[in-house]
Amino acid sequence: MNPVRAGIVSNIEDYIYSSASNYVNGTGIIEIELLEIPKVDVLKPSSFDKYISQK
């Protein structure tokens, strides 16, 4: 968050070269695709099996 500390912008999402604007506003220089990654509890084998069967 150096641009904020340097006083260039007041919010990191306002800095044009930060990817934070993609996550906050959905806009940015480069378009990114947000993926939904399911949580898998590795201590429960059934949780992993359920994740694999969804693919």
General description of the model:
The chain has one domain (2-54). It contains 3 helices and no strands. The protein has helices spanning 2-5, 20-24, 45-54. InterPro entries: Transposase_17_sf (IPR036515).
Count the E strands: 0
Q: Which percent range describes the beta-strand content?
A: under 5%
User: Could you spell the SSE succession in H and E letters?
Assistant: HHH
> How many separate structural domains?
1
Percent helix, as a range, is: 25-40%
What integer value in Å does the Rg equal? 18 Å
The main pleated sheet reads as: none
Note poorly predicted spans: none
Helix/strand/pairing class, anyone? mainly alpha
Mean pLDDT over the full residue set: 76
Shape: elongated
- Helical stretch count? 3
End-to-end C-alpha gap: 37 Å
InterPro entries: Transposase_17_sf
Give the helices and strands, then pairings.
Blueprint: H1 2-5, H2 20-24, H3 45-54
Features:
55 residues, mainly alpha, 3 helices
Summarize the structure.
The protein is an all-alpha fold. Helix content is 35%, strand content 0%.
